[in-house]
């Protein structure tokens, strides 16, 4: 009987604690930028996650910038957050990272990325993993088969369009391309192998839940993402064990580099593979999609790019892959890529800084 009577009081105490812990940062930090924290626990996360066109800021940022200015406070992913859409402040933050500022993703996202992810760790651990990432880029570019692998994957993706009646979603095809290239270079897996399709399916589930409301209840995107990450981890660990048993130390991929080092635990190696997928998947596919989108708006530029490519291709044998020297000749194509980067980064830069939780260390 006493327990039944005490239950309402316990629930009321928990509710008051939740409300106070949510709004207390507003009261204790009067110098913080203007803004709103929204509802307890949920904050303004649902509004922030509302889909919008990729060439706009979205209603959440547009509304808050007009009401509070280009720097405002909010409550996103269960975390008090300062959101900056100011170019000069963003540049200052990036220039002073690890000195005045420490940038990281909100804590609930750590549950998906894992404690060993390069996006989560800080200080010396981050530097160590970053150096390995640079080793990946360097070793990959030095491989004689690198450009040939990319060209074969591109031809495979384009070849799969035959018979679809022209009905394809290009951004999805660009994602398949980016994923296939990364998996080939990191794990040595070709697009045709069943394990590649299995990793892709889990990775898509992972990506859907990465930027979602962090509610770990079975069936939610967040919970599915955590489970997908565990399955990817299990798959990659299985590949690592197979390599060790077969003593395949001379395979031509970056997993060989990871296996040859004793500096990382198996969990860190798995996280590094996932970071490689995460780092190149959205960025590369978005860049390719934006190049195609912008070329579709200008028949003249599209014609110039086609002429440049056809001219270079005409100097090669039918089955001969393009070389690094051939790509260096694509001067106009490089101008198109640079312009797409310039236009695309106007949106991407703002989105990235809006997501990050900026903590001032001074």
TrEMBL record:
CC cofactor: heme
Keyword Coiled coil: no
GO MF assignments: heme binding; iron ion binding; monooxygenase activity; oxidoreductase activity, acting on paired donors, with incorporation or reduction of molecular oxygen
Pathway as given in its UniProt record: Hormone biosynthesis; Steroid biosynthesis; Plant hormone biosynthesis; brassinosteroid biosynthesis
Cellular component GO terms, alphabetical: membrane
Keywords, sorted A to Z: Heme, Iron, Membrane, Metal-binding, Monooxygenase, Oxidoreductase, Transmembrane, Transmembrane helix
Biological process according to GO: brassinosteroid biosynthetic process; brassinosteroid homeostasis; sterol metabolic process
Keyword Heme among record annotations: yes
Pfam families recorded: p450
Coiled-coil segments on the chain, per record: none
Family annotation (InterPro entries): Cyt_P450 (IPR001128), Cyt_P450_sf (IPR036396)
Protein location: Membrane
Catalytic activity: campesterol + reduced [NADPH--hemoprotein reductase] + O2 = (22S)-22-hydroxycampesterol + oxidized [NADPH--hemoprotein reductase] + H2O + H(+)
Main location: membrane
Family: Belongs to the cytochrome P450 family.
Name of the protein in its database record: Cytochrome P450 724B1
Organism of this sequence: Aegilops tauschii subsp. strangulata (Goatgrass)
């Amino acid at each position: 009987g006493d327990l039944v009577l005490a239950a309402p009081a316990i629930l009321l105490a928990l509710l008051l604690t939740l409300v106070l812990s949510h709004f207390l940062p507003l009261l204790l930090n009067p110098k913080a930028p203007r803004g709103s924290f929204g509802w307890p626990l949920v904050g303004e996360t649902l509004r922030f996650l509302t889909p919008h066109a990729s060439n706009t800021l979205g209603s959440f940022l547009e509304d808050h910038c007009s009401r509070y200015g280009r720097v405002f406070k909010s409550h996103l992913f269960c975390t008090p957050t300062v959101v900056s859409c100011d170019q000069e402040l963003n540049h200052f933050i990036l220039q002073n990272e690890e000195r005045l500022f420490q940038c990281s993703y909100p804590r609930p996202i750590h549950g998906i990325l894992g404690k060993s992810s390069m996006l989560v760790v800080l200080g010396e651990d981050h530097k160590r993993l970053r150096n390995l990432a640079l080793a990946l880029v360097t070793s990959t570019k030095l491989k004689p088969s690198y450009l040939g692998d990319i060209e074969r994957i591109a031809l495979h993706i384009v070849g799969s369009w035959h018979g679809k009646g022209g009905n394809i979603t290009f951004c999805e095809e660009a994602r398949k391309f980016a994923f296939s290239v990364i998996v080939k270079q990191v794990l040595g897996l070709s697009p045709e192998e069943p394990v590649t399709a299995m990793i892709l399916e889990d990775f898509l589930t992972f990506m859907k839940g990465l930027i979602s409301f962090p509610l770990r209840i079975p069936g939610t995107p967040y919970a599915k993402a955590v489970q997908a990450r565990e399955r990817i981890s299990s798959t990659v660990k299985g590949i690592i064990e197979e390599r060790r048993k077969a003593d395949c130390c001379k395979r031509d991929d970056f997993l060989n580099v990871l296996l040859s080092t004793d500096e990382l635990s198996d969990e860190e190696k798995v996280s590094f593979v996932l970071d490689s997928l995460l780092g190149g998947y959205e960025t590369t596919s978005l860049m390719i999609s934006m190049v195609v989108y912008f070329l579709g708006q200008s028949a003249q530029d599209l014609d110039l790019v086609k002429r440049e490519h056809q001219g270079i291709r005409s100097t090669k044998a039918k089955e001969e892959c393009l070389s690094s020297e051939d790509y260096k000749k694509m001067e106009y194509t490089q101008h198109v890529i640079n312009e797409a980067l310039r236009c695309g980064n106007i949106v991407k830069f703002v989105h990235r800084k809006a997501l990050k939780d900026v903590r001032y260390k001074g």
